[in-house]
Amino acid sequence: MTETPLLDVRNLTIDLPRGADRPHAVQDLTFTLEPGEILCVVGESGSGKSMTAHAVMGLLPKAVKVSSGEIRHQGTDVFSLPERDQRALRGGRIAMIFQEPMTALNPLMRVGDQIDEVLRYHTTLDRAARRARVVELLASVGLPEPDHLRRSYPFRLSGGQRQRVMIAMALAVEPDILIADEPTTALDVTTQKQILELIQDIQAKRRMGVMFITHDFGVVAEIAHRVAVMQRGRIVEIGTAEDVLNRPQHPYTRQLIAAVPHLIEHREDFTRARQPVLTAEKVCKTFHLGGGFFTPGRKVVAGDDLSLTIHQGETVGLVGESGSGKSTLGRSIVGLIKPDSGKILFEGVDLLSLSRPAFRPYRRHVQMVFQDPYASLNPRHTVGDIITQGPVAFGEDRHKALDKAKALLKLVGLDASAAERFPHEFSGGQRQRISIARALALEPKLLIADEPVSALDVSVQAQVLDLLEDLRHRLNLSMLFITHDLRIAAQICDTIAVMQKGRIVEIGPAKEVFGNPQHAYTRTLLDAIPGKGWTIPEDVVPVTRRSAALRNSA
Amino acid sequence: MTAAAITPARKGSGFWSAFARNKGAVIGLAFLTLVILMAAFADVLYPASPWDMTAMPFQPPLSEDALLGSDTLGRDIAAGIAHGARVSLLIGLTSTAVAVLIGVFLGAVSGFYGGRVDDLVMRFTELFQTIPNFVLAVVLVAIFTPSLTSIVLAIAIVSWPPLARLARGEFMSLRSREFVHAAVTTGQSNMTIIWRQILPNSLSPIIVSASLMVATAILLESSLSFLGLGDPNLMSWGYMVGAARTVIRQAWWMSFFPGIAILLTVLALNLVGEGLNDALNPKLARKGRS
C-alpha cells in the first residue's frame, strides 16, 4: 500500500446550521482509504459517520456546508474540480449504496432499466451492449435468472435482492471506491451474512476501496481491514481491525465494545415453578392480504400451531427473522390480534374464549413494551399522564397513581420530575424507560417485550437490557422477549424459541439451543451472527454490567 | 423526525413564530380581526337598523349622509356591510362548527372501528358527495323556509363529507400507532382512546380544513342570499349584491362594496387557513417560503 491513497480526507470540517446541538457535524477529520481495503467507520447515531460519506458523495443537505479541509481522490482535490467533473467522479469513480433498499430504488421502474440508466450516463455502450452488461452485473451479484429478473419491478424483490440490485447498480461503472452506508442494517441476519460476503467478494476481485459505515461491531469484526471509531463528529480511534477490536485504546471504543451483546455461557439454569403463568396451545393465525371482488388475496401464515409456556420469573426469548410471526404471537397474547384458533391460557384461563368485558381484568396482568420508542408514547400527553392512564382506567385514584408513577420513573432510572415533561424532551433510551414504566404501572405478571432495544444504539441498548434484567429479578416478572438478534436473546433469555415462517422450529433452554442446536434453521441463524469468530477482549467487559443509574436508585 | 411528524407537541411561541413566518397569513389575520371588530361594533357604528332608509336613494359613495353610497331605497351601504359582517361570520362559524361535529364524529367512528361500520358510514358519506353541494343547499333551504337555522343546517349538511373523510384517514393511520396499541393493552376504553389518545393528535389537519370551510360557508350563504334564499330579517352581503344586480349599470357601488367585503373576507380566511397549515403541519409546509 505505497501508492497514493484512493481517498484521502484531510482536516475535513463540516458545519451544522445554527441551532443544532453542536457547531460541527464532523470536525477535523483525517483518514485515508487505500485500494483493496475495507475501512469500517463505526459510531452511534449522530456521530457524523453518514455525514462524512455524504460529504464525499456531494450529497450534503443544503443547510450543511463543508467549511474547511479537503477530500482528495487519487491525488486530486475534489472540491477544486468544476461541478461537472465532480459529478462525473461521483457517478463514475465513487459509488454508494444505502441503508434502505426499499426506498433507494425507483418503485416505478424495472430494475434492469434503472441499471441501464446509470450505464447510459456514464458509458458509451450501445443498447445491446448495455443490455448484456445489465444481465452480467445482475449475475455477478448472485441474483437468480438475471435475464428474467431484469424486467421485474422492485416490489417483486425481497430486501436482500434489492440490496443486491443496488450493489449491481453501484458496480455498473466499475468504481474504485464503494461507500456503503449501513447496507445491511435493514436486513435479516442470514441475508446480512450473504450481502457481507458479496461485498467482500467483489471488493477482493476488483481491488476496490470500500468505506463501510456501520454501528455494529459484529459486522466490523466480520469484514473490516481497518476501523475508524467516531464520536460526536471526531475520529477518536483509527487503526487495523486487529488492534481496535482486540486492544481498544480510547475509552469510548472500549465502552462501545463492552456494550456489544455477546453469547455468554454463564447464565444459570432456570428452575421452573410448578404452574406456568402462560401457556399458548396450538395458536394459529393467517393474515389475508389484499384481494378484491374478483382476485383472492394473498395468504400469510403468521402462526401455525404455536405452543409455548412461560413460568413465573422466566424469560422466554422468541427469535426469528422478520415475517416469521414472532410479533403476531406476542400481540395475540396481549389481545391486540385475535388468532384463528388455539388457546392462550393465563393462569389456567383461556383468554381467547373471553368476551371483551371479561377479558379486561386480565389486561393488567399482561403488559407490553413496544419497539419504536418514538411512536409508542402519545406526543401530546405528559409522561405522568402516559404512565397513570392505565391505573386510572382500572379505577385507581389519580393522585395515588401519580405518586406511584414517580416512584416507577425512579425505578427505571429517570428523575421523578420527568412526570411533568413531554415525551419529545427525552432521548430514545429514556423513552424506552418510560415505556417500561408504563407497562409496570399496572403491576403485570407477564411482560411482552417486542424488540424493545432494536431501535436503540448499542450502549443505550445495553443499559435498557440491564434494566429489564434487573427489574425481572426484583419484581419476579415473567417475560416474553421478542427479538431478531440472537446475541441479545442469548444474553437475557432462559428459554429460547426459534421461529421460522410461522412455526416454532426449536424450543429449549438457552444453553442447549445455542450450545447444541438441533434444527438446521437454528444452526443457520447462529452461523449468520456477525462477528462470531471474535471474542470480546476480557479486560474490556466490566465486572457487573449494571448501569450507574440503577445502583443509585436501588 | 417521527415526533415532529405528529405535529409539534408544544404550542405557544413555536406555534406563533411558525404562523408569523407566513406573511400572507398575518395580513389575513389582521383583516379578519378588523371584520370581527366591525361585526362586534356594528350597533355602535350604525345604531340604526340597516334596513332603515337614512339617505336619498342612489347616493354615490362619499356623499354626505352615506360614506359608501345608498341603495335603491336609500339604505346606507356602509351600515349594511357592517351589519352583514355579523350574519356572514355567524353563519360561517356556526355552520362550520356543525359540519365539524358531524364530520369528525362519523369519520372517527368509521376510521376507528373499520370493517362493516366503516363501509356503512363511507357509503352514507358518498351518498352526500354525489349530490351537488349548492343544489342540495338550495333545496334544503327552500323546503325548510329561509331562516338563520335552516341556512346554517343546510350549509353544514352539504359541507361535512370532506371532513368525515379527513377524520377517517387520520383515525385509521393513528389507530395502528404503537401508542394507541399501548392504550389498548393498558385497558383504556374505546371512548377514552378515541377522545384522549387519537383525537388530539388528529386535530391539526381538521382545524386547518375547518378554517378553510368557514370561507366556503360564507360564500355559500352569500350565494343563497343572492338567490333570495337568505333570512329575510337579516341584512347580508349576498342579499345586498343580489338586490343591486338590476341597477348595476347605474349604481355600481351597491353591489361593488358588499362584493369586495365577501372577496376580502374569504381571501383573509384562506390566508389564515394556509398559515395554520404551515404552523400545524410542518411536514406538509411548502418549501422556499421566506
TrEMBL record, chain B:
Entry GO CC: plasma membrane
Pfam families xref list: BPD_transp_1 (PF00528), OppC_N (PF12911)
Main location group: membrane
Signal sequence extent: none
Membrane topology of the entry: Multi-pass membrane protein
Keywords, comma-separated and alphabetical: Cell membrane, Membrane, Peptide transport, Plasmid, Protein transport, Transmembrane, Transmembrane helix, Transport
Top-level taxon: Bacteria
Residue ranges of every copy of the ABC transmembrane type-1 domain listed in the record: 85-273
Subcellular location: Cell membrane
Similarity annotation: Belongs to the binding-protein-dependent transport system permease family.
Protein's UniProt name: ABC transporter permease
Organism: Azospirillum brasilense
